[in-house]
Amino acid sequence: MKEAAKIGAFILLVFFFVHYYTMLSTLYGEGKSSAESDIRVVREEEAKATRSRAVRGASLRGCIGLSELQAFNKLRMSSNISAHDCVRRCQKVDYSFAVVRTVHRGIGCYCSRQIDYPLSNSRCVGRKTILLYKLLDCGLKVNDSTCGLVCFDSPGTNSAVALASVPGSGNTWMRHLIELTTGVYTGSVYRDRGIFQSGFRGELHYWNDGSTIAIKDHNFPILNKKLNTGLNDIAKYNHTGAILLIRNPYDALIAEYKRQVTKDQLGDIKAKDFGEDSWEVYVNKRKYQWRLLNTNYIKYISPLLVVHYEDLKHDAKQQLWRVARFLNADHEFEIRINCVLRNQEGLFHRHSNSSFYSFTEEMRRRINSNIAEVSRLLTLYHHPDIPEQYKSSYTF
């Protein structure tokens, strides 16, 4: 009996300790889980608040107090003004910082050229906050005071969206239009100082730093593996997307030939200087490039926006609306588009006579076969088909 009593007491003791340990573990675990959950919710709220307060051309640096606000010049108080409007207003009068304060009467906009205290990256949660923005590098793209500024976004703002085309398709002209339309500089994988000095200030920025809105790229896997740009595999644009600018291959071949011979983006060749032999060598070397680049982007890159050069010339407003929406940069479209249309030529839109350029029957057969293949894929993948003028511009 005594042995049985001892065994029973031991079992009860073990049961008690197991139950007590389980209870503590549960309570601790729940407390820990609850705390982690609370932290996660706060971080999600902070991230959501930061995203909702992002403004092109400015970097949100955190929140300031009422005492610090006194150092800023009040620009405007309005129920209609937004943080974006405030940032643009401060940039236009050459300030370096903007402050947005939300009160019951609307939004107060304040500007300053400098601040006398260290910048903070503190996070802000809640609606009644005083947001401090550091204004980024901006400038006027054209000599037209009615046009909006063009700015760099803060690094990391944008994904690497390609502005892809074969050479001679009007890529640099398209960059000019995109910058005027969106108010954000474009970039490039080439870092061409000549282009940079012509006003394309994003040309020398690293292509993938997120400060520019679209990346000029003529590369594709088959012909350009020898180029060490980091973008030879166009799959780098998959999921981030691309704008594919397609031009009639006959016109694109002629335009790029002029650039190569004259070493000038706007160079032209007179009939007496036209070299028949060099032209034939050039066309035979390049005649497949148009098909290969376009078919690779159409088949393998998503999301993809196809813009035809000829449609852009015919109706710039409609095509730029498509581009702005694709880039999620259409919030100022109606304000900026009139300026764009007044200044749409830019510095790199070439006008010239191409009547003396000849294509042999074999050249035409290959090029027309390429056009037919790209047209088939455009239809298959539900993109705008090639313009009708392709079929009538060049005849046998």
Topology:
Elements: H1 2-52, E1 58-63, H2 66-69, E2 73-78, H3 83-92, E3 97-103, E4 106-112, E5 130-135, E6 138-139, E7 150-151, E8 162-164, H4 171-182, E9 187-188, H5 193-197, E10 215-217, E11 242-246, H6 249-262, H7 276-286, H8 289-300, E12 304-308, H9 309-314, H10 316-326, H11 333-342, H12 361-380, H13 390-393
Parallel strand pairs: 8-10, 8-11, 9-10, 11-12
Antiparallel strand pairs: 1-5, 2-4, 3-4, 3-5, 6-7
Helix pairs in contact: 4-11, 8-12
Describe what this molecule looks like in 3D.
With 396 residues, the protein is of the alpha/beta class. The protein has helices at residues 2-52, 66-69, 83-92, 171-182, 193-197, 249-262, 276-286, 289-300, 309-314, 316-326, 333-342, 361-380, 390-393; strands spanning 58-63, 73-78, 97-103, 106-112, 130-135, 138-139, 150-151, 162-164, 187-188, 215-217, 242-246, 304-308. The strands form three sheets. A five-stranded antiparallel beta sheet has the order 1-5-3-4-2, with helices on one face. Helix 4 packs across helix 11 (333-342) and helix 8 packs parallel to helix 12 (361-380).
What distinguishing features does this structure have?
alpha/beta, 5-stranded antiparallel sheet, 5-stranded parallel sheet, elongated
